[in-house]
Amino acid sequence: MTLTIDAMNKLVPRALLALSLGLVLSCGGGGGGNGGAAFVGTSDPVVAQSSDTSSPIEFGFKGVDAGGGAGDGAAGSSGGPTASSTASAGDSAGVGSGGTGATASGGDNSGVGSGGTGATASAGDSADAGVGGVGGVGSIIINGVRYDTSTAILKLRDAPSLQLGMTAKVNGPTNPDFTEGVATQVESAVDLRGVITSMGPAGGSFVILGTNVITDTSTVWGNISAPSALAPGVAVKVWGLPAGLGVLRATRVEQHSLETPILSGTVQNVAPGRFTIGGLTIDTRAATTEAGALTSGVNVRVRADAQPSSGLLKAKSVELWYPLSLTNGARRQLGGVVTDYAGANFFRVLGIPVDASSAKVSGGPLSSLGNGVEVDVAGTVSNGILLVTKIKVKKAPGSGGNSDAFQVIGSIGAFKSSSDFKVKGQAVDATQAEFTNGTEANLRNGTKVTITGARIANDVLAATHVVFD
User: Fold this and answer.
1) Is residue 270 classed exposed, middle or buried when 0-12, 13-18 and 19+ CB atoms within 10 A define those classes?
2) 221 and 301 in a common domain
3) Tens digits of per-residue pLDDT, 309-324?
4) Cβ distance 356 to 391 under 8 Å?
């Protein structure tokens, strides 16, 4: 029997129609960064969600501008379902990746629809692409590029919703100066999932599955108050960006019950049936593997069905980590950590070779570049190298975070007090904020605001600045 869309909708429990989802993407070099956005879905969704979160779940969005969508606690706009069970593979027209997302969750009825379960980890990439960390709500901003998300498809894995701090990849064409774009697809998956085996001396770093996880003031702490809440034996999920051999720069950390392992990092020591990531050996003899994933220097995501034993992890699958092709003429914008630095004319960001010698620079001089420095870069690929036209120096190792690392744009909802309200599903505390075009007394449901902040703990954004629009 064939069901029409209308018939399928009648089968969807009404409770599902109240689901809300906001996507936040940040431009953080290696994480953090200015800007962000939320996806608001249709009020008449088609839902075909898989219980297996190792497979991507696709969410269709149509006819709703995230920046002007319903506020928290309000019904979302109706635009009819737009779900796709597949996304085009290969090189099409545009891609961008960010790291962090925000969710309209709990009692925040913004009307999000989901549609279709994807079959692959990645649908390839387009000729306009970027990867980085996520940090804003309002319209989607990735590494300084603001994307229209009204027709975007979200492919989500390993989590029920896309939250601030998660890594993500966004496909979609951008304008010539990399300030605006149109998102066609966003995909996200957890980068590291396992048990902490040891903590760093200052508590700001820890080891999971042989990978050293580093955090800083731009790291989002989901259901965790601070790094001090972590200890050996605690199971966590980490979204982050490869920052060197065996090192992951965390953009989001959540505590959770023990689940099957996931490991992301740079492939080394390739041998028949195995390779290493950090201090762990990966057995690939029974794994499904994407083409090119077993090459030294490539960033991959490994999934397994059982915990490692004696330093060996038996892989179930090995996939490329947010793959980006280096086709001549392809446009790429990346947020990440500098590695393999040999000068402004050659270094890598997320494994991509970069030449920034002729780039327009902001945030600091080119002389401040070096391994471990967080940057946003944007440019065009030529002969396998990203020729950067603009670069923003975000942060050097050990330095403080950005005061505007996260941004939320939208209408206030679920207002209880200046320390407890939501914008596009993101919980906000504005008790320590500066106010423009108004005062703390003007905070109320339905008021449109732009909020920036530098830190998120227990999934609450500590606002530093509130602008009344």
Assistant:
1) middle
2) yes
3) 999 999 999 999 999 8
4) yes
- Comparison of pLDDT for 115 and 403, the residue scoring more: 403
Query: Is 360 part of any domain?
Result: yes
d(CA 453, CA 181) in angstroms, rounded, equals: 24
Range of the domain at 301: 192-320
Q: Is residue 400 part of a domain?
A: no
Q: Rounded to a whole number, what is the distance in angstroms from the first to the last CA of the chain?
A: 51
Residue 380's alpha-carbon distances to 124, 377, 388, 390, in angstroms, are 18, 10, 7, 11
3-state SS, residue 7: helix
Q: Does 60 fall in a domain?
A: no
Three-point CA angle 98, 66, 437, nearest 5°:
100
Residues 250 and 310 in one domain: yes
CA 272 to CA 447: how far, in whole Å? 60
- Look at residues 74, 34, 52, 299 and name the one whose alpha carbon lies nearest to residue 158: 52
DSSP 3: P
Query: 3-state DSSP helix/strand/coil percent for the chain, to nearest 5?
Result: 5, 40, 55
Please state the length of the chain: 469
What is the residue type of 213? V
List beta partners, residue 349. Answer: 338, 352
DSSP state of 115: -
CB-based contact 56:430 (threshold 8 Å) = no
- Condensed to tens digits (0 to 9), the pLDDT of residues 373-388 reads 989 999 999 999 999 9
CB of 34 within 8 A of CB of 405?
yes
What domain count does the chain have?
2
Residue 203 lies in a domain: yes
Q: Which two tokens stand for residue 256?
A: 């959770």
For residue 109, report the phi and psi dihedrals to the nearest 5 degrees. Answer: -85, 80
pLDDT tops 70 at residue 84: no
How far apart are alpha carbons 146 and 141 in whole angstroms? 4
d(CA 269, CA 367): 33
